[in-house]
Design brief:
8-stranded parallel β-barrel, TIM Barrel, alpha/beta, 15 helices, 2 domains, single chain, Non-ribosomal Peptide Synthetase Peptidyl Carrier Protein, Chain A
């Protein structure tokens, strides 16, 4: 049984990675319904939290059906991180996660996210302060290092464990790589093999099929896998991986009806949670992924990414279902 503190996650948990503008409540609901074991919020700026900024505070919204769930924060200032940890605790998640992996320039330039990989001592200091500021189990998500010359993840794992974190998720790329090239899991495996490490180690990066999830589980010995980009518009990846682990068989891809129903549910929740304008606009990035591989989908996509009337959008989704037979559903 894999546990983060007292939070039980099963034998080999499948985790949804925190993704900005993606892993919000509407999307998380779909992933949970498809068997995701634990999810994380979008990352939240500690400066925004302590200043009560609407966008940051809104990301604290969590629902009972999502549990167990982790709220993820990022920042670079000691006092701000500690104050934000207290605010997060009031939202009652199961876990508080610190982002030391985001490679985006505007985050990195403030020495937050993956920027802190340039100063491991400060990373450890911030982590220790957050652990001391909350009763929640604290976890960390990070990368192998800043660049190929600074892959200090083995040392980082030990030092973060020593100051009290309860689990570590490792993305198998450096900050310099961003999301390019292939994720290198060899160092993730070495962290897991380290006899000093007793906290769960979750691997992240390039898990895009049940076969790869099984291969990496066996080859690198991780305690679970965290799935990010492969889940966007495809929450079924969680049920497919779980089914493959249990039976050794691959599930058929979702039918066009299942895809339409998921997209419609996603849109409906987005409208409820964000309001009509944002709900419509922020769904646009998802439609391509829901219907990737369908011949001629471009014409329908034009409607989905330009129309602003929700009724028109729901109508377009119904037209997609009517137009494509289930036999045409592409293999994912």
């Amino acid at each position: 049984m894999v546990k983060i503190g007292d939070v039980e996650l099963g034998e080999f948990p499948l985790l949804l990675a925190p993704m900005e503008d993606v892993s919000d409540p509407p999307f998380r609901a779909l992933c949970k319904a498809q068997g995701c074991d634990m999810m994380y919020t979008e990352f939240i700026s500690v400066e925004g939290l302590i200043r009560d900024a609407d966008k940051s505070v809104r990301k604290l919204d969590i629902y009972d059906y999502e549990r167990p769930i982790g709220i993820q924060i990022f920042g670079a200032e000691l006092d701000s991180m500690m104050r934000a940890a207290e605010i997060v605790e009031e939202a009652r998640p199961e876990v508080l996660d610190i982002n030391y992996g985001c490679p985006v320039k505007k985050v990195v330039n403030k020495m937050a996210g993956a920027g802190i990989l340039q100063d491991i001592d400060k990373m450890v200091e911030l982590t220790k302060a957050v652990v001391s500021s909350t009763n929640l189990p604290v976890t960390v998500k990070t990368r192998l290092g800043w660049d190929d010359n600074t892959k200090y993840i083995e040392e980082v794992a030990e030092r973060l464990q020593d100051v009290g974190i309860k689990a570590l998720s490792i993305h198998g790329r450096t900050r310099k790589q961003m999301y390019k090239g292939e994720a290198d899991w060899t160092l993730i495996g070495r962290v897991k093999e380290n006899p000093r490490i007793h906290i769960p180690i979750f691997g992240n990066g390039d898990i895009d099929s049940p076969q790869k999830a099984k291969e990496y589980r066996e080859r690198y010995g991780v305690d679970g896998v965290m799935i990010g980009r492969a889940s966007i518009g495809y929450p079924w990846i969680f049920r497919e991986i779980r089914h493959y682990f249990e039976t050794g068989e691959l599930l058929p891809p979702p039918t066009v009806r299942e895809r339409v129903e998921a997209a419609a549910e996603h849109l409906r929740h987005s409208l409820e949670w964000k309001g009509e304008r944002l709900g419509v606009l922020e769904m646009r990035r998802h439609y391509t992924n829901y219907f990737r591989g369908y011949p001629g989908i471009k014409e329908f996509r034009k409607i989905l990414v330009t129309e602003e009337n929700p009724d028109t959008l729901f109508g377009a989704l119904r037209e997609i279902e009517a137009h494509y037979s289930e036999a045409e559903s592409p293999v994912h």
